[in-house]
Specification:
about 65% strand; 4-stranded antiparallel beta sheet; about 120 residues; 7-stranded mixed beta sheet; mainly beta; single chain
Length: about 120
């Protein structure tokens, strides 16, 4: 079964930095893209950043210039978050579009997978 494991959340003061990591594991044949979403209570989940299999990156406007997503290897990504603001406070979820085995059966179809989420709190 494919799984995404996140790490690196925590509490930091405004202006500080955190690095989130996401590692994919399981019966994987290819990963088309990996990225991050975030959600605060009472609001919809918001896309934050994506990195494709060829290394192309994209960001939501509010984090451009402050967040950097990078690929560690073909199954692990980091997101460096600098100059954090109070409005960055949220639960951050790793997302990936992965081809592999579902229920033990290999498939060429790609599906969206989600991590459990990691809390980021930016507060003085």
């Amino acid at each position: 079964q494919v799984q995404l494991e996140e790490s690196g959340g925590g509490s930091v003061q405004p202006g500080g930095s955190l690095r989130l990591s996401c590692a994919a594991s399981g019966m994987i044949s290819s990963i088309k893209h990996m990225g991050w979403y975030r959600q605060v209570p009472g609001k919809e989940r918001e896309w934050v950043a994506t990195i494709t299999s060829d290394g192309t990156t994209d960001y939501v406007g509010s984090v451009k210039g402050r967040f950097t997503i990078s690929r560690v290897n073909d199954k692990t990504v980091h997101m460096q978050m600098n100059s954090l603001k109070a409005e960055d406070t949220a639960v951050y979820y790793c997302n990936a579009k992965i081809s592999g085995a579902r229920n033990g059966i290999w498939s060429n179809d790609a599906y969206d997978y989600w991590g459990q989420g990691t809390q980021v709190i930016v507060s003085s």
